[in-house]
Hints:
single chain; alpha+beta; 2 domains; two-stranded antiparallel ribbon; 15 strands; 34% helix; 24% strand; elongated
Amino acid sequence: MDRRDLDDFVVRAAVVHYVPTQRDDPGDELLLTDTAIKLDVALKQYFETKIVDRLKNKGLEVIGDPDGDPTVTNAVRATDRGDTKLVANSQQIARHLAAVQSAKVSPSGLLAVVSGTTGRRECLAVLKLERERGIHFAIKRVGGRNLLDLELLRDLTLTDKTKVYKTALLARQDGVVAGFVADDQRSISTGRQVATFFLSRFLGCMPRLPAALMTYEFVKAANESFNEDVPSPERRGRYQVAVLAALQSNVRDIRPSAFASQNLEPEDREPFLARVSAAGIEPDVTFEKDTSRVKVSRFRMTFESGMVLVGNQRALDKHVTLPEERNSGDPVVLHDRVEDLLAGQ
């Protein structure tokens, strides 16, 4: 599934269940509905907007993991225009979520399983939504079936207050399940783009491109851009330090467009992002960092005073003497001569 296909996503049907956790609702039981809800124009638009906006802005491209749990991926493969198995499969998905999520950490919520199409492709979306506190969640028993209170659903979903915790849209593609996943409970500053339990144990998926390969291609594209597109030696050195800092920082995600806006001069951003795009990395999409395949030949040493020493590993070994114990207070000795000095106010 191409990210552009998200613009063609159309909702057809939806089933909603209540999945409680001990953290929020101790003693509550899993409540499963027995029929799809009646979707009017407003509800369809709500689901379409929530799904597409999140996945276009922050969706991680994923594929089904052959060794992963098949509950969700089998439901994707079974999706048809008649939605003959939607209710039964959604109930299985809800039971699966209740089993794999942490009852003491994860919040209670509503699980929406939504069928639809993107272009000519059948697809299935899974959303975990906040259950608005203070509103009693009602499932009515009618004719031996559990039915969702549709008016309550409107109160819960058709409001800007309701949080969408996690979103996935998956479809059959070339014999495999593929799509996009977003996790609003995660951010660039908190680490992984999508919680492992949701991506792997629940959805049974994995990133389409391994993080190590994405990181390698990003660094390669960055170096090509700096060396071939940037005429200023000073800017080239500054940009290389920025890449090194990004790789060595505690932040575990990189968004190329954000990196460019934060570290590159305006005239150097477009060539840089063009190189990144040519490497198969979407500039506006965050990817998880993994430096295991990246051989970093440069170093960046920050001193207590705020001064920074930058160079390659060979120069470090030859010209810098480090104290035997890092916290000893002994000085760092630089054996070199000043060739040029760049200073400012």
